[in-house]
Amino acid sequence: MKELKDTTEVLIRFNEADPLGIVWHGHYIRYFEDGREAFGKKYGIGYLDFFKENVVVPIVHAECNYKKSLKFGDSVVVETIYEPCEAAKINFRFNLYKASDRTLVATGRTTQVFLDKDTQTLLLNNPAFFEEWKQKFVK
Amino acid sequence: MKELKDTTEVLIRFNEADPLGIVWHGHYIRYFEDGREAFGKKYGIGYLDFFKENVVVPIVHAECNYKKSLKFGDSVVVETIYEPCEAAKINFRFNLYKASDRTLVATGRTTQVFLDKDTQTLLLNNPAFFEEWKQKFVK
Amino acid sequence: MKELKDTTEVLIRFNEADPLGIVWHGHYIRYFEDGREAFGKKYGIGYLDFFKENVVVPIVHAECNYKKSLKFGDSVVVETIYEPCEAAKINFRFNLYKASDRTLVATGRTTQVFLDKDTQTLLLNNPAFFEEWKQKFVK
Amino acid sequence: MKELKDTTEVLIRFNEADPLGIVWHGHYIRYFEDGREAFGKKYGIGYLDFFKENVVVPIVHAECNYKKSLKFGDSVVVETIYEPCEAAKINFRFNLYKASDRTLVATGRTTQVFLDKDTQTLLLNNPAFFEEWKQKFVK
Question: C63 vs A60: CB contact, 8 Å cut-off?
Fold first, then answer.
C-alpha cells in the first residue's frame, strides 16, 4: 500500500512570530490546516469538497510536538500524510521542516470525524463518496 | 445631545506582540471590534441583536492612527464613541489607552452599513429597529 | 497534596468563529494560553515572571480533545490544573467549559521546558526559583 | 517617473472567514502586510532589510475601504504601490482583487515611519540607505 502524502510550503508572516522572535506555538495548528488543505486540493478531499457532499469534518483531536523554533524570514515545509484507519475518521500525520535546511521542527497529528451538515449528527460510517475515495487512493 | 460612549478593558495576549515586543498593528482592529461589541452589549446593538432583525452590519471603512506602542503585560482601555449621522450607516470613533497610565496609544474609526441578511442587498434607509434605537438613545 | 488550579473566563470574539459558525479549533490553543497566564498571575509564574529570571518556557507539546463546539456569543471557562512532575518541565491540564451551562467542550494538556534566555540552551534541572515555587505551592 | 508596484497572490485560509462565511475585515490588514513584504522582497526593503540597518519601520496609519466580500476558497491578489513623498515616511497604496474574476474588493493605504532600533527614537530624515534606494528606484 502506497503512502498518500502532500508537501506544501508556507511563508511565515511577521505577525506569526512572538516577542521571543520565534513563531508562536499556536500557529503550528494553522500550518497543519494549510497542509490538510493542500492535501485536500491534490486528492479531492478539501473542506469545500466535503461541503458539497453535505458533510462537515470537524477536528476532534490535534496534537503537536515542537522540536525546533521557526523565525520570521523562514518558510515552513508542511508534509501531510494520510493515515488509513477502519473507523469513520480521517487521520493525518504532519512533519514540519524549516525550508532552508530541512531541519525537522515539529511533528503532529489530527483526527476528524464526519457530521451531517444539516443535522450536525455524527456519521458512524464513512460517507459513500469518502469510501469511494479510499477505494481509489488508499487500497 | 449627549455623547453615547462605552469604555472596556482588554488584556493583551502574549501572541499579540510581535518580534519587536510590541503589539502587532493589525490587532488594533480587533480591539476596535472588542470596543464595538462592548458598546453593543451595553446599548443593545451587538452583532447578535442585528442578526435577530435579519440584518448584518459589515465594516466598509476602518482606519487607525498609531501613536504609542503597547507591550505584552499591558492592558488596553478601549473607548468607543457612537457618532450620529443622517445616512443609513453606523459610525464609531475609538480611543485606545494604555491601562496603567492612561497614555493615548491610538485613535481610529469604523463605518458600517446595513445589509439584508438573506439577500445581502444594501439597505438605503435605517432599519426600523435601529431608527427606534436612535430615537431612544441619540436624541 | 492539594491540586493547584485556576479558573478564568474568556469571551469568544466574533472573529474566532469560522464559516460553520463555530469557534475554529486552532483558537483553543489560545484559550489554553489564556488559562496558563491567569494561573501564572495567580501563582506568580507567568511569562514575565520567568523572563525576570532569565528563563523562557517554550511549549514542547500541546494537545486538545474537542468534545462540543463553541459559538460566537458564548464565553468559555478555562480550568488550568498544574500537574506536578519530577523532570525539569511544566505540565498543565486544561478543561474548557461553555460558561452558560458548564458543558465540557474540550480537554487538553501542554508541556513546557526551561531555556536559558540568552544562550537558548535547555536547562536539565528546574531553575532555583521554580524549585522554591514548587516547595511553596506543590508540596 | 515610473510607478513602483508589486503584485502577489494570497490564498484565503478557512479560519480567516467568519460566521457570515466571509473574510473577517481585520484580516485585510494582514493582506496589506503580505503585499508590503512581497514588495519589500522584490525591491530590497523588507522588514529584515531594515533590521540590518538598525531601523524599524512601524505603521503609524492604516486604513481600508471594503467594497466586496471575499470567501473561503477565493484567493486575493494584492497590488502594492509605493507612493513617493518628501517626508521621512514610507507610504503604500493597496488594491485587493478577487483572483478568480479580478473584482476590486478593497483599497487601502499605510504609512510607516523610521525609528532607530536601539533608542526607539523617531528619525526625522530618511536613513541613508533608504535615500539611496529612492535614488535608485524612484527617481
Answer: no
Q: How would you label C52-69 residue by residue, b for 16+ Cβ within 10 Å and e otherwise?
A: eeebbbbbbbbbbbbeeb
pLDDT at D1: 62
| CA C80/CA C83 separation, integer angstroms | 10
C30/B37 touch (CB, cutoff 8 Å), yes or no: no
Give the count of alpha carbons within 13 A of B64, CB side only.
26
Go through the domains of chain A in sequence order and give each one's CATH number: 4-131 (3.10.129.10)
| Ranges of H-type helices in chain B | 27-43, 47-52, 128-137
Give pLDDT tens digits for C90-102.
999 999 999 999 9
Burial class of residue B17 (count of CB atoms within 10 Å of its CB; 0-12, 13-18, 19+): buried
ipTM score for this prediction:
0.94
From residue C34, give the alpha-carbon distance in Å to each of B13, B22, B34, C38, C80. 8, 18, 17, 6, 9
- The backbone torsions φ and ψ at residue B131, rounded to the nearest 5 degrees and listed phi first, read -60, -45
pTM given for the model = 0.94
- Residue D3 belongs to what H/E stretch? none
Query: Measured between beta carbons, which residues in chain B are less than 8 angstroms from residue A72?
Result: 19
Question: CB distance C17–D17 less than 8 Å?
Answer: no
Cα separation, C122 vs D14, in Å, equals: 36
